[in-house]
Design brief:
heterotetramer; B: about 230 residues; alpha/beta; Rossmann fold; nine-stranded mixed sheet; two-stranded antiparallel sheet; 6 helices; C: about 80 residues; alpha+beta; Mth169, Chain: A; about 35% helix; elongated; binds adenosine-5'-diphosphate; binds magnesium ion
Chain lengths: ~725, ~230, ~80, ~80
């Protein structure tokens, strides 16, 4: 065993292990770990891999439903979508690498989440991305936007998976810590899902994909450390993505998966070979012997430490049935990928690494996994804030000017500049493209489809973590319902500051409570997810951002609703209660430069009732135009419908309404555009079940007529909404 | 009509093209792996979009030198019709079957969106179901679609009526604003002298189904069926 | 032997990348940048043991793959391994 | 003055392009190509009249735009206008 002497508490601390954690490592081993072992402990027990601060709370989330095949714990979540098929999906963060090197950071984020999904046997059918950037005025923002978007496109376009949706907003709290959350949705035959639990003593452990280099060593610990002013200079080696190789890996894995040669398979993501081999062994209760000399290497002189911690991309670890090595090798050679038998499963319960004839590490698998640290960190709830309504705000702009300002604001403006850089149509199944509430992607060769979206309103979560957590789930559910999809399940990507600070931990605990409550009330279980802590610089944290990615099922692609008002003479109907909540609204922020107040409360029973009503009307074919009301309220929602369809609307404004009516962000609301005949029916049907339905306008012409407040031509509206992002990026 | 679709390791529109061809022709095309050295006896060879070999070095460069392309060039010289879409167009120019090059888009960004095309020639195996001058909506999705050719080459294309499609606006106006990538003279697709080889950047296979937002691409595949069976 | 290959666009061939870089430089405040041309620089680690054969094979590689000689020029330089 | 800029990937950084080129060369029948690294070569036509100031501004351009210094190295060479 090498380097026994020089591992100290100080060296452990440099690896991010606390004194207590190091003591526990020594106890488990019965001796001081060597350098390689220390590296393994440090990544396995990093926040990123061990979830030590979040585990306690994640356990409280609902994860089950009759249609859930596999919940959290595997590489991705799996749900039954009927016809013998399963949808497999997950969202993951790549925040820190994307800040340091936006193109490669974002690209490898996409690569990583794709592998999480195809490692389970699914062909990826869509990507989404939730992006949060700092203030547009911040010196770095433009460069980060440009690099991140190019990187996401560069990877997804090349591998040929359409990028169909996402979010992109700006806030100064992300100035030093942008968020890049990538989601992939795939489809697999329900009876051919692959898991990561190793089994079968003597079975070979196979390494496939790209060679290992010294890329991103310590990426997992980087993802678990805060930034300080020096991090710009430290610039750790970032990984470079190779989407072409990933495409080969995808096809080769799917080809091998069509045989029965695979026992277990796991991609090498954060902490590469260490976490993939450890997780496979520990899930299956197995030991594993690895011969590191067999690992395909890109560089000479690599040490065991480097091989185990490298985060080189486009690699997979597979346990094969003994004797199937040649079949597997033939497939990977056909696709011109590296293939190597690097070890065997054992009954020792230990992970034993050999290199050049020496044992370079010898660790007990179960104790290391079981006694991974778990913390119940102190947390403090955020103070409750008061609601703000129309009467509480000083009127700074006319309705017309406020609407134009909102439509041209960074958060609400069209994100076309982004999604046009993504191939959102490849695979020729994209039925609803970016720019709607949820994207709709047809299940190939069928008349059914999946709807998908990502949502979160960080300013709400900041103002009230519990309500904000609920709202993120509710909005996701609503965006799916607005297309006519039945929402099935969600993945979450929980981005927060340092859990070692009570108020941040309080935000986390509150958000989880809200997410859990909404997910229970809406029958919308959480099947996969990811936690990203330490998104803060110099003690200033990001707004808490639990991104929620949702998937829903559409029974008939010819029975969906779209956002655009595309015919004259339609009745515009608002479903749901309008109180005029302006607390934490975009109106308040953009027009009155205030971020004060409580966010709109979420009534989950109403949310469910109205959403189900809307879906039933879309399924019956009565409703073909529908949009939910969210950021910017009613005024913005109608403006978006007008822009999407190209037909104007004349609003019928109730007497005595104020800006709370126009721009309040009250939840559980939808806007429908239906022909006159159906309008009366829908209004009376909704009133019968206690849903408030108000006729707020009629479609026609080429202006958005706001009544007494004036009118806006469609071309002015379009110029404002489409203008901001390209204008900003080309400045 | 019998067709073959060439599949490179990084092709990603091979399935889309297969579906569109099958929809028009009623029979599935043969998928031919890039390492093959011969082609089945077919009426049409289709080279699909994607990133054939990652599009590293230059788009289409490595694919053009792959084993199967020798066979494609030979069959094309014998008169078999060839359609190259997007990366397929780039491969056809790199292999010398079509003139010109496809350079990085004018503003250097990848662009994916619907564009309008004006059908400049409808007397070809690929466009006989369109009207001359018809304006159609078809999506593009590429990083390197900026068609360039020297002025003699350009003149020749114009004189011989070998510009198949040009980018235009919804009214058919061909100008700089309706040019999505900086292509010379808004050229979106070109023919070889025999008019049996077409390369085009837009993806007709992506708008050949009303569920996907349009059906204008369908006529291209119907034209092929009409001409070649 | 190592071959250092420069691939540049022929004079008169439009260079969208160079043009965009020139624009970006101007936007960054660099005044008077007249022209920017972007090419490729490729380092090949070759098995040949003498310069002449290394140069010949690098040239062959340029002709057959590395350069598109319709629009690009190339230049090969041979250096001893470092 | 003209600045000739070479931008190359730092040692150890994966070069997917180089890797693919090496493969393609092997498939074309070139044996024994050990490694290929692809970089960029940029020619800048600068207004500066002395070498030192041209070198300084080219370096500044590399730092601020042309090179991605997280993963790339650059080298500037100044030549008189030809
Ligand atoms: N980063 C992005 N990538 C792809 N699509 C995006 C991105 N950001 C926003 N979009 C698209 O823009 C549209 C509007 O987004 P958003 O305002 O977040 O919708 P909603 O309020 O319905 O959640 C959606 O279709 C979304 O998918
Ligand atoms: Mg919405």
């Amino acid at each position: 065993m090498q380097n026994l002497s020089n591992v100290t508490v100080e060296l452990a601390a440099e690896h991010g292990l606390t004194g207590g954690e190091f003591a526990r490592a020594v106890e488990i081993l019965g001796r001081t770990p060597n350098f390689t072992e220390l590296g393994i402990f440090s990544v396995m027990w990093s926040e990123h891999c061990s979830y030590k601060s979040s585990k306690k709370w994640l356990r409280t989330l609902p994860t089950e439903a009759p249609w859930v095949i596999c919940g959290p714990g595997e590489n991705a979540g799996v749900i039954d979508i009927g016809d013998g098929l399963a949808a497999i999906f997950k969202m993951e963060s790549h925040n820190h690498p994307s800040y340091i090197e936006p193109y490669q950071g974002a690209a490898t984020g996409v690569g990583g989440i794709l592998r999480d999904v195809f490692t389970m046997g699914a062909r990826p059918i869509a990507n989404l991305n939730a992006l949060r950037f700092g203030s547009p005025d911040h010196a770095k923002t433009r460069h980060l936007v440009s690099g991140v978007v190019a990187g996401i496109g560069g990877y997804g376009n090349c591998i040929g998976v359409p990028t169909v949706g996402g979010e992109c907003t700006f806030h100064t709290s992300y100035d030093g810590n942008i968020l890049v959350n990538a989601m992939t949705v795939g489809i697999a035959p329900k009876d051919n899902i692959f898991y990561a639990a190793a089994a079968g003593i003597g079975n070979p452990v196979i390494y496939v994909g790209s060679k290992t280099g010294r890329d991103g060593i310590h990426g997992a610990t980087m993802a678990s450390a805060e930034f300080d002013d020096q991090s710009d200079e430290k610039r750790p080696t970032v990984q470079v993505g190779d989407p072409f190789t990933e495409k080969l890996l995808l096809e080769a894995c799917l080809e091998l998966m069509a045989t029965d040669a695979i026992v277990a398979i796991q991609d090498m993501g954060a902490a590469g070979l260490t976490s993939s081999s450890f997780e496979m062994a520990s899930r299956g209760g197995m030991g594993i012997d690895l011969d590191l000399d067999q690992v395909p290497m890109r560089e000479t002189g690599m040490t065991a430490y480097e091989l185990m911690l490298s985060e080189s991309q486009e690699r997979m670890l597979i346990v094969l049935r003994a004797g199937r090595e040649d079949d597997a090798r033939a497939i990977f050679e056909k696709w011109e990928l590296d293939f190597a038998v690097i070890g065997r499963l054992t009954d020792s319960g230990r992970m034993v690494l050999k290199m050049a004839g020496d044992i370079v590490a010898d660790l007990p698998v179960a104790p290391l996994a079981e006694s991974a640290p778990e913390y119940d960190r102190p947390h403090r709830a955020s103070p409750k804030l008061d609601a703000i309504r129309g009467a509480d705000v000083i009127l700074r702009k006319s309705t017309r000017d406020a609407l134009l300002a909102l439509m041209g604001s960074p958060d609400l403006c069209s994100k076309r500049w982004i999604w046009e850089q993504y191939d959102h149509m490849v695979m020729a199944d994209t039925v609803v493209r970016p720019g709607a509430d949820a994207a709709v992607v047809r299940i190939h060769g069928s008349n059914r489809a999946l709807a998908m979206t990502t949502d979160c309103t960080p300013r709400y979560v900041f103002a009230d973590p519990v309500e904000g957590g609920k709202q993120a789930v509710a909005e996701c559910w609503r965006n799916l319902s607005a297309t006519g999809a039945k929402p099935l399940a969600i993945t979450d990507c929980l981005n927060f500051g340092s859990p070692e600070r009570e108020e941040v931990m309080g935000q986390f605990v509150g958000a989880i409570a809200g997410i859990g409550e909404a997910s229970r009330a809406l029958d919308f279980p959480i099947v996969s997810g990811n936690v990203s802590f330490y998104n803060e610089t110099n003690g200033v944290a990001i707004q808490p951002t639990p991104s929620i990615g949702g998937v829903g099922l559409i029974a008939r692609v010819d029975r969906i609703a779209r956002v655009g008002i595309n015919a004259e003479g339609l009745a515009i109907i608002l479903l749901g209660q309008t109180v005029g909540e302006l607390g934490a609204s975009l109106y308040l922020r953009e027009i009155n430069h205030s971020e004060a107040g409580a966010p709109p409360p979420v009534d989950l029973a109403q949310e469910r009732q109205i959403g189900e009503f809307v879906r039933s009307r879309i399924e019956s074919g009565d409703v073909r135009v529908c949009h939910d009301v969210s950021d910017g309220g009613l005024g913005v929602a109608v403006a978006e419908m007008v822009l999407a369809g190209g037909v104007g609307v004349t609003m019928s404004v109730p007497n005595g309404v104020d800006h709370g009516w126009w721009f309040g962000e009250d939840q559980a609301r939808y806007i429908l555009a239906v022909d006159q005949k159906s309008a009366a029916q829908i209004i009376s049907d909704s009133e019968k079940v206690g849903i408030k339905a108000t006729r707020i306008g009629t479609s026609g012409g080429s202006t958005l007529d706001l009544g007494a407040d004036g009118a806006i031509t469609l071309s002015d509206l379009r110029a404002v909404a489409e203008g901001w992002l390209p204008g900003y990026m080309n400045a | 009509m019998k067709a073959a679709v060439i599949v490179f390791p990084g092709s990603n529109c091979d399935r889309d093209l297969m579906v569109a061809l099958e929809q028009s022709a009623g029979a599935a095309p043969t998928m031919v792996w890039h390492r093959e050295t011969t082609l089945p006896d077919v009426d049409l060879i289709a080279v699909p979009g994607g990133f054939s070999y990652g599009d590293y070095l230059r788009s289409g460069a490595m694919a053009a030198r792959s084993p199967i392309m020798k066979a494609v060039v030979e069959d094309a010289r014998r008169g078999v019709a060839v359609l190259g879409v997007c990366n397929g167009f780039q491969i056809l120019t790199e292999s010398g079957l079509l003139p010109g090059v496809l350079m990085r888009n004018r503003d250097l960004r990848y662009v994916c969106r619907d564009v309008f095309l004006r059908v400049e020639q409808n007397d070809t195996p690929f466009s006989n179901k369109y009207a001359q001058g018809q304006v159609v909506k078809i999506p593009i999705a590429h990083h390197d679609g900026n068609f360039f050719i020297d002025s003699d080459g350009h003149r020749q294309l114009e004189d011989e009526g070998r510009i198949a499609f040009r980018y235009c606006d919804s009214a058919g106006l061909v100008d700089n604003r309706s040019n999505p990538n900086g292509s010379l003279a808004n050229i979106a697709g070109v023919l070889d002298p025999s008019r049996r080889i077409l390369g085009m950047m837009p993806h007709p296979e992506r708008l050949s189904d009303p569920n996907l937002g349009g059906n204008d691409g369908r006529a291209l595949f119907d034209s092929i069926l009409n001409a070649l069976s | 032997m190592k071959a250092l290959v420069h691939i540049t666009l022929k004079p008169g061939v439009l260079d969208p990348q160079g043009k965009a870089i020139a624009n970006a430089l101007t936007n960054l405040g660099f005044q008077g940048v007249n022209e920017v041309r972007q090419g490729k620089y490729i380092e090949l680690d070759l098995p040949d043991s003498d310069r002449a054969s290394a140069a010949a094979s690098a040239k062959d590689m340029c002709e057959r793959l590395l350069a598109n000689t319709v629009i690009e020029d190339y230049r090969v330089e041979i250096v001893d391994q470092t």
